[in-house]
Amino acid sequence: MNKSYRPVRPGYSSAVLSVLKWTATVGVWGFIAVLLMSGWFFLTLPNIDAALDATRRPTITLLSADGSVLAAKGDLYGLPVQLTEVPDALPKAILATEDRRFYSHFGLDVIGLLRAAWRNVRAGRIVQGGSTITQQVAKNLFLTPERSIKRKVQEVMLALWLEYRFSKDQILTIYLNRVYLGAGTYGVDAAARKYFGRSVTTLSTYQSALIAGLLKAPSRYNPHASKNRSRERTQQVLQNMVAAGYLTDDQASAAVKKPGRTLQAASKRLGRHFVDWVMAQLTSYVSAGDRDLTIITTLDAKLQFQAEKQVRQALAKNRKKLKVTQAAALVMSPSGAVLAMVGGDNYGASQFNRTTQALRQPGSTFKPFVFVAGLAAGLTPESRVSDAPIDVAGWKPQNFKRTFAGEMTLTDAMANSVNTVAVRVAEKAGVKRLINTLRRFGITSEMQADLGLALGASEVTMMELTAAYASFANGGFGVWPYAIREVRDGQDQVLYKRQGGGPGRIESAAKVSAINAMLSQVLKRGTGKNARIDRPAAGKSGTTQNYRDAWFVGYTTDRVASVWLGNDDGASMNRVTGGGLPARMWRDLMISAHGGISKKDLPTSDNPRHQSKPLAKVEKGLWQKLTNIFGGD
Question: Which of 64, 68, 230, 364 is catalytic?
């Protein structure tokens, strides 16, 4: 039988065998390498038990009077919540947007990964990720944000471990409490309080969808950063919920129509001197320890914004012409609540607070207290005192205009800021009585015991000077400036709540009424004409020697404000007087401060205002510490 054979090429079989041999060898070594690398990835996993413990810095959050956040120190976490405690719409919004197959996959969503890969290939770039909520928990709890093969492999390992160790509800609960949601917030409760001023347990469907929408890009969809982008993203999440069967079209439309309030973010630079001042006082009220704290302050965010804007604009316009480089402004209620504080032109350049730390001569703004002492010595607003040259042991004080007008009433002398009359009134009252008067009104800084005090030769802080004027605005009651209304811990328990209003009456209503009448004339016909506003007001200008300081301090029955201009090095300005630019700045500031407030007459002996009870004993014990702060120590 003849057989036909195809010739065998020499070496063909051996070549095939060689390739197979090397392929098998590479495969075996590759498998071993993968095992070794996986083992190394496993051995270098972070400490899982330590990561599960929530270790962080306690958070101190400062809120303005309207609830907007002024500052947050530490990591901003909310209260830990259980899945059963949050509105049903929140986890559904998150699942519909982030991981619809969460309850059916084993930690990795193979379908989701394939879909994401296909879309990324079609787009030619990364447009969609395939990470599950379990993977996100693994990354957030245990790993860094770095992009590497090692991190991704470890993420998968940890996701599988989480699925083995915890139930789906537990994993979702961990996610709700740890996920980053923008603006420094971690967890859904922190986000709810940051953006809506309320606990996560009370969120509406729309608010729940907004929070879920932040997960994709917290900074981009932050409602404080862009209302429009946030709104569009939230509506997309609502549509995702409809597509997932969690909502009907009608329910989604109803959610859009009733979104609920979103808090406006305070400017990142708003009230930074104020924040420092509050933080310096905090330990006098509560001991922070390792607790989260929320401090509700007195600051009016809108007024603070206007005050900072007006100070910046005034300095920008007049810096070179008037040789002035710094300014400060302060607004408080007649009971001492600080509503606005501008401690300087630029916090970034100088954190020195010129309202609480700077000691400057007050000039003629001291004259109202001189005249209070004079009234106590038997003078009246109509008493006539000589405006003539005076010599006190070689000291010869002069008037601003270097002229003399003869005898005049105290009211005329106040309106025109006559120095010689002020010195004669102080001489009659006595320096000891004058110092006692100033102390009674809350001036705590060191004072020189001579007649130079009548012209403001001693130094004070803006805070104590403004608070002293507040006693005229409230009818004669002492004022302790304050910024903290309430302090709460992370469990929303009240640790401190302000009660009472000050040390009580410090001056008779009759004397205060007389001073109010005299200081009203300053604005009507005297050195404060530039400070006139559309309601009863009173105040006093002040200019120190060689134009080093220029002040205007004044009040209505609802607001007390002060403005100071000068240079930190004490250099002279270009003939800036308190009745000029400071008076105009005070006018603009007070117009902003009275928005929506009806006009009222100033307190008189027949109509005292803002009477308040003395502070509780627990708060009186803080006075010595606070006076150090007010005095700039």
Answer: 364
